[in-house]
């Protein structure tokens, strides 16, 4: 291992850890033997440079080992299992994480996609060290970008500007952020970069005198009020100057705040004392003060910012912060490794470092171990969102827990309404499948499909739920019309009139008198808002007293799958073979119950509240039914019962066990799927034959809630 890297590593790692890093270097050097970079140098120089950058942040041994090995799996054919065997699973996981990020292609060129891509990179890295390795990798690649072709340089530089520099900024790695921006600027606009660099160098001599004079005045004023402080003049980096010129349409000579000052004090309270002193020295510019101490930035950054009128009329930017705030501002999330001071100082840094990494707030003051730190930091950096790809490579942001249905409606309402299946990463998956970061989702649609009421139970986004409800409402309207027509026809036949005998003139008269169109009238019959027999009498222009004289019409046939306008009662769970009755319920349509259901016994006296119904003879579906078993309380009884149910061709939807009191018997509640009453009888007969079963019966009414 090169002497400089070995010395840097040995300066802060334990001897055993330094030896492990040396072993990783030797392994990587051997694996990359014979490989060259674009600039003609041995390939090992790249992972070594990445390791040196991370060693400068005092990263732990596992991170350094992963940095040295991060291209081994992709470029040399060595299996991840070998990495795990030689260097441990945590190192292999880091290498795998970096490899996974490398495989993501920034396919969409739209600027709006950049933020989603940044977030997805962060969210996919379960360990923040993966991101740090990736950033160090990108930094070295940018430093050696001259070896690439011009079009590749432009693409990589733009990607760095759009993706990786903002990530470094988000992580609080300010020095890295500034260098990435300047390198990207140099490769994207080499002429502008060269001209601006010369202009800054030319102005530097004249401005140094001003800078030193202002710095002296600030030091003197702070000493006057009794504050111990360090004062530094700082120069804005080139891309920051260029961006300000672009955004505000300024020439270089008009950018006065190229230089600023940083004041480092001892205590947070001293920051405000220093602010008052500076405001008495130079007049503050209104609206240019920001308190990032009371309200830190999203990445944990804290400082007081103020802009003052300088002695020569030029604005002066000043940042005021403590030493701990300065450490976090410069090193960001890496400051945990870079600055391991005593427990109290570490606790203070943890309190200020990245509020958006909520896990840091849970670390105890004496938590100086990197492993413990990482256990807390292993959370998605964007816990409320997932980022997935469309088939065309566009990235879509969805709330955490969003399912395929949410994705479909987010693409387009019609896609959501017509979706029937989905492929996630090439495999067919249920529409209720929750999506994960990086999933590639393809929706399969059908022109005849329509939303299912069950989607409401697993749709997460407001957009999806609203569109599902809207579509169901339209479907409900359509089905209610169909049911209303059936009920009206049944009422007409009960009055001795065939529906075909009703003329258009009769319908026109009724719609004119009622102020409703035919569709609305039929839907209201289906929803129970109007009685079919009353509408039939109005069509026939008869007195409503004739309603009591109507004879019972032929029953309506029920198939069990009519839709939202005709539903099976959950209270009694009727199945084919059960004597049934149809209850007209306002705003709900027709509810099918068994004859002995307690819910409808008081309706039997009012013929206007129920409909004569029967099961159709060609039903080809299964129905839910609840059964209760009293069984011997012994090992394996649940498995025996479940196997018997499966052998009889029934599926188990749900099973619950009664409270255990230590007695000889216990209760089992099953919800099973059967075709009809004959199928249920056969199933119960088989279960009754088991020696463990003491008693069995079908559940109805209140007890059905258990099944």
UniProtKB/TrEMBL annotation:
Residues 384-445 form the TGS domain. In eubacteria ppGpp (guanosine 3'-diphosphate 5'-diphosphate) is a mediator of the stringent response that coordinates a variety of cellular activities in response to changes in nutritional abundance. Keywords: Kinase, Transferase. It comes from the Bacteria. This is GTP pyrophosphokinase. The lineage of its organism: Bacteria, Pseudomonadati, Pseudomonadota, Betaproteobacteria, Nitrosomonadales. Belongs to the relA/spoT family. The keyword ATP-binding does not apply. Residues 43-142 form the HD domain. GO terms for molecular function: GTP diphosphokinase activity; guanosine-3',5'-bis(diphosphate) 3'-diphosphatase activity; kinase activity. GO terms for biological process: guanosine tetraphosphate metabolic process; nucleobase-containing small molecule interconversion; response to starvation. GO terms for cellular component: plasma membrane. Residues 626-701 form the ACT domain.
């Amino acid at each position: 291992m090169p002497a400089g890297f070995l010395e840097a590593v040995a300066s802060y790692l334990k001897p055993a850890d330094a030896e492990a890093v040396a072993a990783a270097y030797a392994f990587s050097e051997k694996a990359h033997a014979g490989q060259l970079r674009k600039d003609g140098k041995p390939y090992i120089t790249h992972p070594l440079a990445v390791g040196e950058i991370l060693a400068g942040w005092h990263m732990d041994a596992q991170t350094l080992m992963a940095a040295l090995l991060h291209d081994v799996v992709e470029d040399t054919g060595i299996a991840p299992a070998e990495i795990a065997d030689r260097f441990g699973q945590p190192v292999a996981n880091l290498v795998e994480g970096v490899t996974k990020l490398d495989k993501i292609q920034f396919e969409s060129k739209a600027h709006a996609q950049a933020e989603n891509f940044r977030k997805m990179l962060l969210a996919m890295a379960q360990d923040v060290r993966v991101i740090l390795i990736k950033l160090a990798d990108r930094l070295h690649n940018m430093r050696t970008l001259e070896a690439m072709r011009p079009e590749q340089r432009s693409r990589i530089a733009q990607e760095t500007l759009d993706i990786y520099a903002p990530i470094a900024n988000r992580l609080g790695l300010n020095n890295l952020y500034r260098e990435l921006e300047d390198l990207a600027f140099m490769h994207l606009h080499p002429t502008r970069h060269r001209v601006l660099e010369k202009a800054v160098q030319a102005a530097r001599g004249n401005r140094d005198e001003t800078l030193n004079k202002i710095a002296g005045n600030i030091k003197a004023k702070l000493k006057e009020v009794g504050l111990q402080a360090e004062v530094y003049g700082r120069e804005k980096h080139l891309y920051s100057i260029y961006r300000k010129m672009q955004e505000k349409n300024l020439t270089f000579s008009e950018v006065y705040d190229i230089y600023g000052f940083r004041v480092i004090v001892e205590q947070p309270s001293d920051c405000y004392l220093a602010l008052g002193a500076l405001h008495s020295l130079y007049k503050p510019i209104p609206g240019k003060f920001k308190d990032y101490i009371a309200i830190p930035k999203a990445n944990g950054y804290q400082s007081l910012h103020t802009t003052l009128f300088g002695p020569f009329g030029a604005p002066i930017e000043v940042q005021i912060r403590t030493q701990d705030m300065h450490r976090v501002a410069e090193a960001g999330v890496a400051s945990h490794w870079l600055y391991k001071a005593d427990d109290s100082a570490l606790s203070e840094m943890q309190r200020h470092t990245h509020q958006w990494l909520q896990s840091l707030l849970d670390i105890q003051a004496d938590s100086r171990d990197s492993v413990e730190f990482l256990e807390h930091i292993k959370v998605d950096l964007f816990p409320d969102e997932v980022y997935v790809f469309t088939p065309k490579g566009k990235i879509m942001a969805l709330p955490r827990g969003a399912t395929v249905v949410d994705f479909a409606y987010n693409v387009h309402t019609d896609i959501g309404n017509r979706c029937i299946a989905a492929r996630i990463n090439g495999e067919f998956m249920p529409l209720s499948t929750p999506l994960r970061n990086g999933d590639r989702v393809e929706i399969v649609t059908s022109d005849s499909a329509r939303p299912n009421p069950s989607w409401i139970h697993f749709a997460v986004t407001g957009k999806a739920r609203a569109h599902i409800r809207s579509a169901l409402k339209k479907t409900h309207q359509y089905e209610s019309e169909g049911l209303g027509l059936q009920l009206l026809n049944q009422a007409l036949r009960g009055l001795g009139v065939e529906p075909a005998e009703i003329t258009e003139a009769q319908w026109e008269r009724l719609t004119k008198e009622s102020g409703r169109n035919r569709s609305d009238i039929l839907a209201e019959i289906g929803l129970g808002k109007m009685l079919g027999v009353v509408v039939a009498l109005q069509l026939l222009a008869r007195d409503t007293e004739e309603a009591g004289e109507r004879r019972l019409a032929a029953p309506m046939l029920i198939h069990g799958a009519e839709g939202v306008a005709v539903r099976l009662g959950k209270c009694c769970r009727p199945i084919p073979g059960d004597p049934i009755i149809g209850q007209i319920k306002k705003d709900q349509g027709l509810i099918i119950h068994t004859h002995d259901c307690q819910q409808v016994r008081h309706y039997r006296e009012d013929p206007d509240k129920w409909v004569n119904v029967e099961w159709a003879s060609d039903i080809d579906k299964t129905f839910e039914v609840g059964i209760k078993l009293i069984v011997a309380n012994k090992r394996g009884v649940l498995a025996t019962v479940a196997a018997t149910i499966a052998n009889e061709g029934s599926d188990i939807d749900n099973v619950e066990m009664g409270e255990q009191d230590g007695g000889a018997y216990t209760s089992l509640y099953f919800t099973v799927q059967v075709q009809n009453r004959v199928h249920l009888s056969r199933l119960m007969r088989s279960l009754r034959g088991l020696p463990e079963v003491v008693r069995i019966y079908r559940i109805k009414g209140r007890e059905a809630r258990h099944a």
